[in-house]
Amino acid sequence: MIKAIHDYLHKDAFEISAHFTLLALLFNQVGNSFSRPFILFISALALLLANGFKQRLIWFMLSFFTSFRVLYVWPMADNHAYLLALWCLTLFIASCNPAKARMIIGDNGRILIGLVFLLASVQKMLSVDYLDGTFFQYLFLTDNRFEDFTVLFGNVSFQQIYQAQDLLSQYQFSSFSTNKNIVPSSLEFNLLVTISTWWNLIDQLAVACCFLAPVGSYLHRKRDFSLMLFCITTYAVAPVAGFGWLLVSMALAQCENNTKIRIAYMSLFFIILFYYEVHIWRILVDFIH
Amino acid sequence: MAFDKLKGLFSYLPIIIFLIIVIHHCYWVIQANLSPWLGGGYGMFSTTDYGPSRYIKVYALEDNIIKEQIEIPESLSNVARSLRSLPSINNLQELALEIENYLRLSQHSFPHLRVEVWGSRYHEKTLIPSFHLLNKLDHKLVE
């Protein structure tokens, strides 16, 4: 077993990245009822066949179906659907040019990750309601996916969250005008909002700078650490595992042939799976209450 | 030589397409109030300006006077979701036509429909919302 893992860690970056991309496709089950069966079938086939991941037809079909899924529902597809389609296209181009596959996936993976994080941070800086904390106040009080986290760290009760949601819905186009504060008065909640706002921005900006920094520079050498820190902190709270798995698959394509970094990324892939399947904040809330 | 350059450029096609998508996203955000969360611009988790903060109002009009507010039927929820995300004239028209068909089936008849899409902005301290019109369309029903 240990020898098998050791051998796997020394495989070509294209093979490892392709395997993890296929795993991400199988775990995340993307697409609609037209494209999903094809995406799942092709991904499974690529993993089951010997050297299936090297077949350019496999990556062409996956590029086609993941792009189709984006175009068919435009503009409703999530941002990671675009990135997934582009990453499948990258793997297709690399499979067409085996001699340069390592360079193609490495460069595209690194630059695409850098650009994604650059855009995410620029959008936050340009937004009219991000830097002042409005966004996270709204998110923590209205998005049920975050309510356990908010209750645990924001010192607010579920009842206060539901009251805030009720108040918000009463304000919608009604003559309701008591000017009652929707945000619960809690020092911890305000602190949680401030930390979330600035941590998200700084962390994403740091990943962008590291991935887009010149090759060999200090920042460039810190890129894997910055991305791992982002994934460990973000996906513990944000339930968007598909994006996390895709980022890890892309990161595996661009990291050096360093066994420790590869182990760290592969572990991260399964940590995200753990976050996704085991609702740690729910368990903690139940335990405390 | 030129073929080699083209081949080299082909290796970076995903990055080129990525940049085109970003320009396309910016165009629609500026041109038709596309929600920054969508369209491949990576604006998710950056603003409250997305689906749940946008509302659609449909009114039946007669002589430019609002006669009735029309509830959007559940069967049109996907069309409404698209319109909330991208309140373009095409999407307004699409919802208006769908509602026209729905009204015809339910034996209602009005000369005009007005479809409006509203956005919300929240007070930074209290979260009390204020509303602003993103786009609207007056649609004449076929006799």
Explain what the structure shows.
- The complex is a heterodimer of chains A (289) and B (143).
- With 289 residues, chain A is mainly α.
- Chain A has one domain (2-288).
- Helices cover 74% and strands 0% of the residues of chain A.
- Chain A is built from 15 helices and no strands.
- By secondary structure, chain B is of the alpha+beta class.
- Chain B has a domain at 51-140.
- Helices cover 39% and strands 27% of the residues of chain B.
- Chain B is built from four helices and four strands; from the N terminus they run ααββααββ.
- Chain B has helices spanning 2-11, 13-32, 77-85, 89-105; strands at residues 54-62, 65-70, 112-122, 129-140.
- The model of chain B has no long low-confidence stretch (mean pLDDT 92).
- The chains are: A mainly alpha (289), B alpha+beta (143).
- At the A-B interface, α5, α6, α7 and α9 of A face α2, α3 and β3 of B.
Overall spatial form of chain B: elongated
C-alpha termini separation of chain A: 42 Å
Give the end-to-end Cα distance of chain B, rounded to a whole number of Å.
65 Å
Q: Decide which structural class fits the backbone of chain B.
A: alpha+beta
Bin the helical content of chain B.
Answer: 25-40%
Largest sheet of chain A: none
Query: N-to-C SSE series of chain B?
Result: HHEEHHEE
User: What share of the residues of chain A lie within helices?
Assistant: over 70%
Number of domains of chain A: 1
Keywords:
heterodimer, A: 289 residues, mainly alpha, 15 helices, 74% helix, globular, B: 143 residues, alpha+beta, 4-stranded antiparallel sheet, 4 helices, 27% strand
